[in-house]
Design goal:
Order of helices and strands: EHEHEHHHEHE
CATH topology: Rossmann fold
Radius of gyration: 16 Å
Helix content: 40-55%
Shape: globular
Distance between the termini: 26 Å
CATH architecture: 3-Layer(aba) Sandwich
Number of helices: 6
Strand order of the largest sheet: 3-2-4-1-5
Number of domains: 1
CATH class: Alpha Beta
Structural class: alpha/beta
Largest sheet: 5 strands, parallel
């Protein structure tokens, strides 16, 4: 049975949660003997993982469906106001909940980001939602291609997208999905 290990990255949220540093993730890279996947994003975590993970492959970009955390109030529509309010409350809750690294890769975190995505899609409409789904499906296919070839997969993804891949990968009969115990 092929193993797919899925690990969330905090990227832009990283400075708020220094106890979940790239150094905590490096043993996963060093012990892995299959395909290594990294998102096409920039940041401190990525620099460290790219340096250690020679030969890492890039996952499809999520840029066309991405929605940064809303900052501030006064959106143009009630939907954008709701998104800004949701984001503010969510970040406050994460400051309390993510007190330990293991909680970042938890089902509760996945649920929070899945709910956030529903609010994003409501605020921004079908075009953004369709782009998000299309790019996540492309990532899933990339990962499954290596798994079908018989290679274990280690995938680092943005915490905002982990829920979607975790759900799809858990439905794939030919793989074992692993969420590492960090911290």
């Amino acid at each position: 049975m092929i193993t797919v290990t899925l690990v969330s990255l905090l990227h832009r949220l990283g400075p708020r949660f220094p106890h979940y540093s790239a150094a905590l993730l490096l043993p996963l890279v060093e012990e892995h003997r299959g395909d290594l996947w990294l998102p096409a994003i920039k940041g401190g975590e990525m620099t460290v993982l790219e340096q250690r993970g020679k030969g890492a492959q890039l996952l499809a970009s999520l840029a066309s469906g991405w929605c940064d955390f809303a900052t501030g109030h006064g959106g143009d529509t009630p939907e954008l106001d709701a998104l800004a309010s949701y984001d503010e409350e969510m970040l406050d809750n994460l400051l309390m909940y993510w007190s330990h690294p293991a909680k970042i890769n938890s089902p509760i975190t996945d649920n929070l980001f899945e709910l956030r995505r529903e609010v994003v899609d409501e605020a921004h409409g079908a075009k953004l939602a369709a782009a998000w789904e299309q790019q996540l499906q492309a990532r899933f296919e990339q990962i499954m291609q290596g798994a079908r070839a018989g290679r274990d997969q280690l995938c680092f993804v943005e915490v905002e997208s982990a829920y979607w891949l975790r759900q799809r990968l858990s439905e794939a009969a030919e793989i074992t999905l692993v969420t590492p115990a960090l911290g």
